[in-house]
Design goal:
The complex is a heterodimer of chains A (about 110) and B (about 110).
Chain A: E1 3-7, E2 10-13, E3 19-26, E4 32-38, E5 44-52, E6 55-58, E7 65-70, E8 73-78, E9 87-94, E10 104-105, E11 109-113
Parallel strand pairs in A: 2-11
Antiparallel strand pairs in A: 1-3, 3-8, 4-5, 4-9, 5-6, 7-8, 9-10, 9-11
Chain B: E1 4-6, E2 10-14, E3 19-25, E4 31-37, E5 44-50, E6 55-58, E7 61-66, E8 71-76, E9 85-92, E10 99-101, E11 105-110
Parallel strand pairs in B: 2-11
Antiparallel strand pairs in B: 1-3, 3-8, 4-5, 4-9, 6-7, 7-8, 9-10, 9-11
Classes of the chains: A mainly beta (about 110), B mainly beta (about 110).
Chain lengths: ~110, ~110
């Protein structure tokens, strides 16, 4: 069975400090991977997607970057956090592409920037 | 702008009652998805309904799609406390690479 793991579970960081969030998917080969951001009480906003290792497409600019160093790993990072980066970060995977696609979400990382 | 949006911010019912969450969307679609997000968790897909389908069921859940009015509904029968969650409808943008979620409807099921 496929599993998706995100780390850390939660972080409290200072404005201006760096950030690295991780996501791994086990049990699926060559999945499509996605990063989402969700403000408290808000909707989900897709940030990045990746179809294959080494290739990442940006959907929304939020002063964040993403990388896919391995087939099963997706990293979200920034060198300088802003207050507006606070929220819930979700990683998701899928096998298909486009409108018939079902995305499977991880448990999320809660980030508070002070 | 939202491609799809639910029509209610919040709904509240008692256990055993039925409830319907509505969603409207702005462009032509090939499929619409319903997701449920419980507090502190990631969303989980409930139903994917394609544009050539009028209705789709999954246990106590029933989704409908009306392409002429560009609307969809998700009905839950015999609600349980564990159905308490935020319900989102979601569709893909025209480029096909971005899943766009509505603002969500918070459903509270009380004992």
């Amino acid at each position: 069975a496929q599993t998706i793991h995100q780390w850390p579970v939660a972080e409290i960081k200072a404005v201006g400090s760096p950030l690295s969030l991780g996501c791994t998917i086990k049990g699926k080969s060559s999945p499509n991977l996605y990063w989402y951001w969700q403000a408290t009480g808000g909707t989900l906003q897709q940030l990045f997607y990746s179809i294959t290792v080494g290739q990442v497409e940006s959907v929304v600019q939020l002063n964040l970057s993403a990388s896919r160093p391995k087939d099963d790993q997706f990293i979200l990072s920034t060198e300088k956090l802003l207050l507006s980066h606070s929220g819930f970060y979700l990683c998701a995977w899928s096998l298909d592409w486009g409108v018939q696609d079902t995305q499977y979400f991880g448990p999320g990382t809660r980030l508070l920037v002070l | 702008s939202q491609l799809a949006e639910e029509n209610s911010w919040a709904l509240s019912v008692h256990e055993g009652e039925s409830v319907t969450v509505n969603c409207s969307y702005k462009t032509s679609i090939t499929a619409l998805q319903w997701y449920r997000q419980k507090s502190g968790k990631g969303p989980a897909q409930l139903i994917l309904i394609r544009s050539n389908e009028r209705e789709k069921r999954n246990g106590r859940l029933r989704a409908t799609l009306d392409t002429s009015s560009q609307s969809s509904s998700l009905s839950i029968t015999a609600t349980r406390c564990e159905d308490t969650a935020v319900y989102f409808c979601a569709t893909y943008g025209s480029s096909g690479n971005k899943l766009i979620f509505g603002i969500g409807t918070l459903l509270s099921v009380k004992p």
